[in-house]
Amino acid sequence: xxxxxxxxxxxxxxxxxSTSRKLIATSISTILLTGACFASxxxxxxxxxxxxxxxxxxxxxxxxxxxxxxxxxxxxxIRFSQRSALDRKKMAGTITDSLVAEDIGMFPxxxxxxxxxxxxGVQLDRDFGEGQGISIRGVEPGLLRVEVxxxxxxxxxxxxxxxxxxxxxxxxxxxDVIKGSEARLTEGGIGGTVQVNTRKPNEFDENFLSVNxxxxxxxxxxxxxxxxxxxxxxxxxxxxxxxxxxxxSTKNTMIHALRNTEWARFADYDNxxxxxxxxxxxxxxxxxxxxxxxxDQAACEQQWFDFSPRLPRYGIWGREEDRLSANVVVQxxxxxxxxxxxxxxxxxxxxQALDLNLHLESQSAAxxxxxxxxxxxxxxxxxxxxAAATVTNRTLEFGWDQTTEMYETGxxxxxxxxxxxxxxxxxxxxxxxxxxxxxxxANGVAGVQVxxxxxxxxxxxxxxxxxxxxxxxxxxxxxxxxxxxxxxxSRSRYKYAPSQDESDETMxxxxxxxxxxxxxxxxxxxxxxxxxxxxENANFQxxxxxxxxxxxxxxxxxxxxxxxMEDQIALITGNTFQSPTLFDGYSLGVDTIGNYQAVDTYPFxxxxxxxxxDFTTRQDxxxxxxxxxxxxxxxxxxxxxxxxxxxxxxxxWGNVGARYVETQTAANGDVFERIIVDQVDDDGNVLTDxxxxxxxxxxEDTDHPDTFNGRKTVEEEYNDFLPSLNVNLALIExxxxxxxxxxxxxxxxxxxxxNVNASCxxxxxxxxxxxxxxxxxxxxxxxxxxxxxxxxxxxxxxxxNEDTIISGAYFVxxxxxxxxxxxxxxxxxxxxxxxxxxxxxxxNGSGVTTKGFELQASTIFSWLPEPFDGFGGAINFTHxxxxxxxxxxxxxxxxLPFPSQSENSYNVTAFYETDTWSFRVAYNYRDEYLIxxxxxxxxxxxxxxxxYMDAKFIYNITDDFRAYIDGRNLTxxxxxxxxxxxxxxxxxxxxxxxxxxxxxxx
Length: 1002
Description:
Elements: H1 19-37, H2 55-65, H3 78-91, E1 96-100, H4 112-116, E2 122-127, E3 130-136, E4 145-148, E5 151-152, E6 172-178, E7 193-198, E8 208-218, E9 225-235, E10 240-259, E11 263-265, H5 297-301, E12 307-309, E13 313-333, E14 338-361, E15 374-375, E16 381-385, E17 389-415, E18 418-446, E19 449-452, E20 458-460, E21 466-467, E22 491-496, E23 499-514, E24 521-539, E25 542-547, E26 551-553, E27 560-562, H6 565-572, E28 576-578, E29 597-599, H7 601-612, E30 628-647, E31 650-677, E32 699-700, E33 708-732, E34 736-747, H8 751-754, E35 758-764, H9 768-771, E36 776-779, E37 787-798, E38 805-828, E39 837-845, E40 849-860, E41 871-883, E42 904-913, E43 917-926, E44 929-932, E45 941-943, E46 946-956, E47 961-968, E48 975-978, E49 984-989, E50 993-1001
Parallel strand pairs: 4-7, 31-35, 36-39
Antiparallel strand pairs: 1-6, 2-3, 4-5, 6-7, 8-9, 8-50, 9-10, 10-13, 10-49, 11-12, 13-14, 14-17, 15-16, 16-19, 17-18, 18-21, 18-22, 18-23, 19-20, 22-25, 23-24, 24-30, 26-27, 28-29, 30-31, 31-32, 31-33, 33-34, 34-37, 35-36, 37-38, 38-39, 38-40, 40-41, 41-42, 42-43, 43-46, 44-45, 45-48, 46-47, ...
């Protein structure tokens, strides 16, 4: 029998849930939970790798955990996917949740990250409407470990965070989110480990081919996107097979943005006796006038400054991508005891990016007319007029190529009670950004009226402004027209800033498993692993700038020439194009400019290069200072044993083990050491102050032999002992299981924090002791120790039948080593050469404790009479908090929440499935979360709460041919940032997306 399958999509960003959607979600949740509780309870035979009485089942389970099981491939639908995910949860050695593909090439969502958000404790961040990265139990993406077939997935730009858009979901067989820990698991995920598993050819009994074609439409973009997938398996015989899985697509995404950028405090506009905030240093000052008697009058008076939008602007950012994901696997069973495999995975995203930006730069008190300002009762500016603002019309256009690759080979040998597994792998992530930034500006624009609504969303019309006449401030005749080249009276600029980076890892490991003849021990595992990770980057930059009224060298004659207004107009004319209409199809609530004439990058570049006679290319540029490369070597060994016994007639099973790992880091970067020496006369005598007789302050000696301007490498090392314990107790055999787990876990510091780049000042003066002058550096910190945590989990899982789970889990994670913001350390041997410096850098500090609970229920109403037996669904809810975060609101002193952590999040999924068709609707919600501890106003910045609804319908035309239609972000959510009530920072609209596709299997 063939079950239809479905793919569910989500897109997270912003906005408060409407009452109606809350009621819908609550109703569905109630129905599902009630159904799960009253479901029948047939016995589910658990296959646990801890079972001493079923050693063969042990071996099969362990092979499945490693992605090496043999299974019969058949058409799978929603209910099979849900059932298989429960099966993996039951068999896992620690607390785990899983997702399983509904069919070959048919993962539940188009994006792996968007699928993962449906797991309790997982929260998704989105970029351009697509799922980008996840946090697990509030721990940020860069502190998670992501593996593909046990191989490390690499991040970009010095981040360990993995962008889940890089891999097509069609390649995925299953995904396990491991929240606990076992000694056998590779260390590195303090928040958890995500294991992505792809298929292998010997899982198939015969040749197989599946093709998929899909068209996508976003209501914000004129051009549709397309996607295709082909999955083929060729079996030479029962022992040798080849699998090829390829997905290609053109993907167009876009955001329309309304921004204040951030908030700031420029002046006291309302002259209210009430403070806007209270500075603890001046808490006893209650009258602004009394600040004149304090040690720092300016700082004291800022307590009365009001919150102003810093830089209102529009943004239209588009991405046109060609994506390709391919996976090739060869698997060969040489004998009954020995099998081997080799695989290659390739992902590319070739992007053409076009970012249109139109700025009203009002970021200081001098740019605002103080007499025009209106302030509300919360000290927020709600209206102002510009006095001398800058308008910038800026376009960035760049190619952005990203590639990830994985090479992997391994073997498995098993005989009697022994099994040996080996794996060697290499993974790579590299990106190249060819950024070209062009802009034209007008300074001194007055009279632009900015009105902010109750959210803080700005509304303004550029064309109400005029260009200030410096000779006659009352002259308003020179009206500003955003579409007129003659209005851009100040500057033209071309900035070329390409960059590139590469991260790679080489890994080898060997695992040994033994099944002892014991009534207590069921498995003994031991293994070794070595890894080498490297990262390097390079940045380049050059500019052509033309300021009206300034002089430049005539490229033809070599003489100085003035850049006139006529030159400026001639350059701009013909080098603009009409932008798309801002927020087309979306009810923003405030008026916008609609569309405007944006700078056309490449024609503009050609003309400004011709004017400057400067045709510099990337090949002509030198690498800028500040680039760095880091190498991390690790060696790990582990020992783990699985056990099983009975206590009071109840089965008790689990595992206990420990992992020991040594880490060596080598960070290479730019170092500048300047030498300060005494001022001396021609005879070498130290010059002194004629009044005090003391030596004069020192000066830099650029020719001093100890001056250094070059690169240095700093090497460090550390080790970790990571014990773990996982215990399960069957309160009701095969039905009700109590789980307990505890472990020590770690994540290595971010690559960007390990860079050595240092700027040092060394004093060689007579005033050293007099002024207590100490050699000083600002730098990165190659000596950072890892993030370390102790974690505890307890869960109660009830499986009434094979399709149902009702579960609750409580967790605590005590992160006792955390990397904190830069501070100054004293007497540090920074370069490991015996010299001591006071160094300002990021350091390790005491950490944070996160805790919370997860609730989940899922079921299929198969026990109901037809046609109601086709209904099913799932719900989950997660609540998280954090203590001792160590981040505080700069204005109020109140402790801030853990970054990236939403206090509450939940998912509701409901579906109906028959042999012919299926329909699924899914809703995901998360609370607001902290993204930045402080903007320029001192206020923390949050991403607003958001709820996303997606739906999909599939129809089986024949047994082998099916069609589907789906929709993403049906509720029309936006991603919104705020710095407090009525202080909108950024609002991004990515549109709704609809897809139509067909699948044919041979």
